[in-house]
Amino acid sequence: MKLPVIKHLTNFIEENDEDFVVETIETLEALTEIPSLKDEELDVIGELISNMYGALEVDKLIKEGVPKKEALNSFMKRVLGSIDN
Predict the structure, then answer these.
(1) What is the pTM of this model?
(2) Nearest C-alpha neighbor of 52 from the set 15, 33, 24, 83
(3) pLDDT tens-digit readout, 54-79
């Protein structure tokens, strides 16, 4: 996951609507079912999907009243904590 990408997607959600991101995730998930995709291509799609899910999580925190910067930081700490474990 990349914080700048999540931050950009969070801004996109604020300016537009989370439904665009949800529908994009569904489309990318459908693409992963193509048997001829190479591992590298699947990795890129997976990274995009995880960043989009991350942005949705950050957006949820913001809607719950957490300031944007704090929401981004706490989300990334949670991600890094799960990687370390």
Answers:
(1) 0.88
(2) 24
(3) 999 999 999 999 999 999 999 888 88
